[in-house]
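ok trying again, last paste got cut off:
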Amino acid sequence: MTPHLSDEQLNEILDGRLNAPHLDSCNDCQTRLADLRALFVALESLPEKNSPRNLTASILARLPQTKTSRAWNWVLTLQAASALSIFIWFANLFQIPTEFTAYQLPTFESLLAQLATSISNLQFSLPSLPAIPSNLQLSTFNLSLLLASAAALWIVGNNFLLRTPTQKQRR
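nice, full thing came through this time. structure:
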């Protein structure tokens, strides 16, 4: 006895692309083919439904609307203002040396000329930059205060972002 026909073969028979002599002698395959024909007839009898043009908008309109509270807006504003003030305070602690501000970056043409000279002399060395003096004035107290402020701001911000809403807030 030959093996039963696969679903793919049964679909090809329905499409008229395959002729299977096995179908004449196998009741199981005949039953499966009749079921498949009935399924396609039932699918064709269903009415066509047109989907809306903007499916995303119709789904989003059905979702519950969430409101941001005024307290949340104030917290975000205060957090941004605190971060900005810490950044400004931290930036004022550093003094840029005058030797560094007077330094001019080499032009692209001069770098190319220096590279061509290095290649022709088989000397592969990068152009040297002047040493940056390390006289940044940052005391241990200022650094500790900065880190403590940043950590406190981070903890407060994450507390508001990660807490789960209570039943009263959900309504």
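cool. The two ends are 68 Å apart (CA to CA). The chain has two domains: 1-47, 70-124+137-170.
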